[in-house]
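Translate sequence into structure tokens.
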Amino acid sequence: MTASPLWTPETLAAITGGTIVGNPKPIAGASIDTRTLRPGDLFFAIRGEARDGHDFVREALSRGAGMAVAAEARAGEFAGAGAVLAVPGAGEDPVLDAMRALGRASRERTAAKVVAVTGSVGKTGTKEALLHVLSAQGATHASIASYNNHWGVPLTLVRMPADTAYGVFEIGMNHPAEIVPLTAMVRPDIALVTTVEPVHIEHFASLSAIADAKGEIFSGLKPGGVAVINRDNPAYPRLLAHALASKAGRVVSFGEHEEADVRALRIVTRPDLSVVDASVMGIPVTYQLGTAGRHVAMNSLGVMAVIHALGADLALAALSLASLKPPVGRGERTALAIDGGEAFLVDESYNANPASIRAALATLSAIETGPRGRRIAVLGDMLELGAGGEDHHRALAPAVESNGIDFVFTAGPLMRHLFEALPMSRRGVQAATSAELVDPLLGFLRPGDAVMVKGSNSIRMGRIVEALKARYANRQPHESSPTMA
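Result follows.
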């Protein structure tokens, strides 16, 4: 049986007020990037920071796009190239406006239960965990990667099939008031804040201001919706105030706090998994997580809070969590074949802030090394920390010491402050860029080592991970990690 189209051309034209030129193909998806475009996608020629999507319309159509959405003023440039939906508008980007209109229409037409997730740390991992768990209980649609901004959220909405049972949307920000229009578009039934930490602090006056920005997510809740908040975080009272000021019908808290509605009674962490004994609204639940790290276990409590609020199957969710694997760049484990032995790589290279680096160091400390192995942290600059950036980097030194990290390799001018705060016995190599760390690290590793790589995106710590995998003939993500020390 042929699947129903995601959108019909007539519907697209009616919602956007656009005019169809040419003969569109059935629309099966949506894209803003010709590199990942699939045949049948609706291509949106939005304006990026560096390039204008209109420059790629002909390429998109040649690659099989069902139709391209272009500004009415420029639609004539693509005569004969394929079908174009010419959208009117005098704003800064009429195509983005059209995508937002379609996103709102997508939310309006679905009966799906929708969850929105934000937080300074852990929002992508929590979103992925919800996708994993809910997919076993119904047709689930979620943001891919970290599509959580002014174009990622509407694009994810446009891609959502009308018959979706559960929708999971990640919503991000790095300035005040950015979440408000996004949560208004998503209109979640449940909104979750994982935690509040000093991330993007250079754009905010204080940590309380970050909490206020995260609390914006509750403003979009549907009447009677559920606000889910980390009870252990110091920002809980401020987030609670935002939730109570919203249309939320109730607030559910999670954490280890004795008053948490979803409470961890015991967390056992191992190098490759965690076991959680919890009380979920008074219901005892024990589950295993297929992803290591105490911070992941804590966020899993938020996942269970959402599952309960949705009225979904808690027991099935608990079973599903056992097969959860970390997203690429967020804890993926790989065995490395080195000189007839094996080393162990933890890829945390996607992004970094003070809280997530401390969590990654704690996870690394739980890994038992081989007979002559060492625990090695490879860290790149943490950005957007404002005037206190140097202090935030220097303040990581006690966490290195307390977690028994043997050597630290650092990249970037800010990480130099951590490097210089460490005793000589723990210093590996300091370099200006991640590229300059590759050769020293490759020459340093030996069998039995456990190495963790982490840093902000723009520092490109991922290139170190790629080099390690390429040199040492890695296997698939590690399935049987060493036991805990």
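Note: The chain has three domains: 9-91, 110-321, 332-471.
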